[in-house]
Amino acid sequence: MRRTVAIACLALQATLTAPLTHAATDTANLQVKLVITETCDIHTAATTAVDFGTQARASGPVTVTATGSVTVNCSPNTSYSIGLNGGSNAPAVPTPGQRKMKGSLGAFVPYDLYQDASTTAFWGNAAGSVVSGSGSGGNQTYQVYGKLTNVNFAADTYVDTVVATVTY
């Protein structure tokens, strides 16, 4: 009996260790792919309004300035430009002197936006009037300098909405 069991065990071991044979094989290619793009974001960080505050009506020339900001976040070393449109009451591609805040009574107060505190570099959205930069991978904040030179208008609240666009 022991001999029968030993022979059966040897037969089973031979069956389990015998090479498997296949009739045929087939192959297929599996592609592995990654696309990396540059990216810029101008809407995640809130803008800061250019708020000229409360001004007393004056008949003579005045200069009132205010500062706001826009923030972009672009991939490292991504070249970009930031443009500001003409707002709700001016041409889409403004030139100096065209932006206007509108009051609830229908009057307009002209103003301009600039890239610099000395208010000499107009900020628009046409070539030569945009702010350019290179991404750092983190937030980069740019000051927007506003200037108006006339407050001889009816008492009212005057507003405008300017769209900032990052192009990369």
UniProtKB/TrEMBL annotation:
The keyword Signal applies. Keywords: Signal. Residues 27-165 form the Spore coat protein U/FanG domain. The keyword Signal applies. Residues 1-23 form the signal peptide. Pfam families: SCPU. InterPro entries: Spore_coat_component, Spore_coat_U/FanG. PANTHER family: EXPORTED PROTEIN, PROTEIN U-RELATED. This is SCPU domain-containing protein.
